[in-house]
Structures are given as C-alpha cells and as structure tokens.
C-alpha cells in the first residue's frame, strides 16, 4: 500500500495549533514559576527566623540575635566577650545577618531572595568564617568602623541604596528595626502571632502614591509590578503573604485611637505625622521624656546600614528605577 505523506496545508495547520497551545500555556507557566519563587522566598525567610528563634531559646531572656549584645562595649579598657553594656551602634542589618552567619545559624545563600531583581543586591559567596574571633573582639565578617566612619566596601554589607560593584547589599530581607521599645519588647522569642519580625522589603516610608511607590523595585519582587505584595514572618514564625503594607492583625500601638480602635500599622513607616494614621506621641515618650517617633513600639521593618542609637535606626530604601 502506498504511504500517504502530509500535505503542506496539514503541516501548517499542525504548526499553527502548536503555536496556539504554546501561546496559551506560556503565561500559565510563567505564573506558576513566579508562584514557586514566592513560596521558596517565604520558606527562606521562615528558615532564617526559625534559626534566630532557636538561638534565642538558648539565651537568657529569650532575646533574638542582637549585634550590640554580641559585640558589646568595652569593660573599662578591655573587651570582654559576653560582658559590658550593649553597643547600640552595632544594631545594624549587616551586623545582624553577618553575626548569625558567623555563628553558623544559616548560610549567606538563604539571605538572597529567589525573586530578587535589584542588581545592587548580590549573593555574598566568600564569607570569611575565620574572621570570627571573640578573643580579638571580632564577631563577624565585615562592618569595619575607622575614625567613626563605616567602610561600606568591606565584608558582608547591606547598603540597599548603593551602587553595583562597590557599595552593595548582601540580603534581600527587611527585619524589625533594632531600636526603641520595638526591640526591647518584641525582638524576642515571645511567639507573638501579631508582631512581624521579618518581611519582603517595602517602599520608602510605606507610601502608596507618587514616584516613591510607582518606581520602587520592590513592587516587582512578588506583585504584578504596579502594586506591592510580599511575605511576612511573625514572631511565632508563621508566614503570611499579603497584598498591603497595612495588613490585618497588625496595629499601630503608639498613636491616637481611631473611633475607639487602634489604626492598622504600616509595616514600613514609623510614628510621626505622615501618613495621617501616625498622629500623637504614644510610644515616642519614655519615662516622661519626649523622644523621636523612631523610638516607638510599633512595627517598622527595613534594611539599615548607618550607625544606630538606642532609640533610632533609620532604614534605607531601594533606589528608584527612574533615578539617575
């Protein structure tokens, strides 16, 4: 029997059908890949926080890793490991994560998010574990201070508003600012299901209008590129994926009451006068003394690399995509 070959028209029809199917499947595949990355990102944040809580369970008072308590101020003229007052200037992002890596709570690769799109954020591949030497008063890799100034090009870094190749950031994740009442009361293993400890990075001051919002690279980490979405890890280590920077169940504790109820807290803004829900002093007072609103007990998450104080740690933000 003579075999019948496909005609050109039949082949073209098959090719057209295949092209149509590919066109229908590609968006679904891209969405599935993005979802998988978001889930992996959530798992990484949870693993980081779980490791910190595990460490806190071994310490007196249940405090999560705090750089200023790891590398304390000198006792007299000597640096004595585990003794001395807290060095609040050390409570910065690069010190926090680098100290945890030095103590082998986790590796640097887990600090780099699978959805990362900011080229300033890089995986730190050559962590110097041998730098950890308490006898020499060195507790992590990097964060060199000389003459009161930081060397932002040394070791593990967190300059999220830096430049590619020089001043870089080696983590994708924001954390509760380690200052004021928020650190004193909530940076511990208290299993608080309403207190965020870590999260996807947010936009500057938690705004949702203007260029600071529209051109923030953080909108592309999980969302549809026009609105912010992200993963949040709470004090009890449970994760939530949220579509707002003012999620349900997280309340602003330091401002005025709004119709008898505390207003929802913006995860990336501190107490003050803007946005309008942040009015009143509340936690900006300590022992009757007026302090900056940064000192409050409300939630504020971010990445910060500049010198901190007991009450103030000012976060930095991703450079805007339309910035020169």
List the main descriptive attributes of the protein structure presented here:
single chain; alpha+beta; two-stranded antiparallel sheet; 5 helices
Task: Characterise this structure.
This protein is α+β, with helices and mostly antiparallel strands and 324 residues long. It has one domain. It is built from 5 helices and 9 strands. It has helices spanning 8-56, 67-70, 93-102, 180-186, 211-214; strands at 142-146, 149-155, 173-176, 196-200, 230-234, 239-242, 285-286, 289-290, 301-302. A 5-stranded antiparallel β-sheet has the order 6-5-4-3-9. Strand 5 (230-234) and strand 6 form a beta hairpin. The model is unreliable at 272-282 (pLDDT under 50).
As a whole number of angstroms, the C-alpha radius of gyration is 23 Å
Q: Which sequence of strands runs across the widest sheet?
A: 6-5-4-3-9
Question: Secondary-structure element sequence?
Answer: HHHEEEHEHEEEEE
Please give the number of β-strands. 9
**What composes the largest sheet?**
5 strands, antiparallel
Q: How far is the first residue's CA from the last residue's CA?
A: 72 Å
Contiguous uncertain segments of 5+ residues: 272-282
What would the principal axes of the Cα set say about the shape?
Answer: elongated
Quickly give the structural class: alpha+beta
């Amino acid at each position: 029997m003579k075999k019948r070959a496909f005609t050109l028209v039949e082949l073209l029809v098959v090719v057209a059908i295949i092209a149509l199917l590919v066109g229908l499947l590609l968006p679904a595949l891209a969405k599935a890949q993005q979802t998988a990355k978001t889930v992996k990102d959530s798992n990484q944040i949870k693993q980081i926080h779980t490791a910190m809580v595990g460490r806190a369970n071994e310490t007196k008072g249940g405090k999560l890793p705090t750089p200023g308590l790891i590398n304390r101020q000198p006792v007299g003229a000597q640096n004595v490991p585990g003794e001395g007052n807290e060095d609040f200037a050390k409570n910065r992002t690069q010190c926090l994560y680098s100290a945890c890596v030095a103590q082998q709570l986790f590796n640097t690769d887990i600090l780099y998010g699978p959805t990362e799109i900011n080229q300033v954020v890089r995986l730190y591949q050559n962590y110097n574990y041998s730098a950890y030497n308490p006898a020499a008063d060195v507790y992590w890799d990097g964060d060199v201070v000389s003459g009161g100034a930081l060397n932002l090009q040394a070791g593990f870094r967190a300059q999220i508003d830096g430049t590619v190749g020089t001043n870089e950031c080696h983590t994708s994740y924001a954390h509760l600012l380690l200052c004021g009442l928020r650190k004193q009361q909530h940076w511990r293993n208290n299993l608080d299901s309403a207190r965020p400890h870590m999260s996807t990075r947010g936009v500057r001051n938690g705004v949702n209008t203007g260029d600071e919002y529209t051109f923030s690279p953080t909108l592309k980490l999980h969302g549809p590129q026009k609105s912010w979405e992200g993963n949040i890890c709470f004090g009890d280590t449970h994760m939530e994926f949220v579509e707002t920077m003012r999620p349900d169940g997280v309340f602003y504790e330091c401002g005025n009451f709004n119709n008898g109820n505390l207003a929802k807290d913006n995860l990336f803004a501190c107490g003050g006068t803007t946005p309008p829900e942040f009015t009143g002093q509340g936690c900006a007072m300590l022992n009757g003394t007026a302090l900056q609103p940064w000192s409050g007990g409300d939630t504020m998450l971010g990445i910060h690399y500049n010198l901190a104080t007991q009450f103030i740690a000012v976060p930095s933000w991703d450079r805007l995509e339309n910035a020169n």
